[in-house]
Design brief:
2 domains, single chain, 5 helices
Amino acid sequence: MAKNPLTYADALTNALALDGLNEDTRVTLLALKTSIEKKNSADRKPTATQTANENIKAEIRAALADGTPRTVTELMAVVPTLNGASNQKASALVRQLVEDGTLKRELVKRKAYFSLAR
């Protein structure tokens, strides 16, 4: 298993633990660490694209609610917001739904069909 790289916050924690830092350096490093932790906080609201993608995922789930397994291409034809989207975007959204357990993927004659996981 690969070792996780040292994060900036961890490096700053290590630097703050060193003896012999003058007070100005300690205050600056502490402020920098606080800033990094704030940026990495999970309290941030989602971006406009993330919100739009969640809406598209809801439409994909609704399109599959009838129980008919569909390919990504078929989903693009059924879901109105995917009409102008690329196949890569549609595939990425469907893959995310498979990874979180919402959809299941079945191969039939080397073609992937997706349906709601029950």
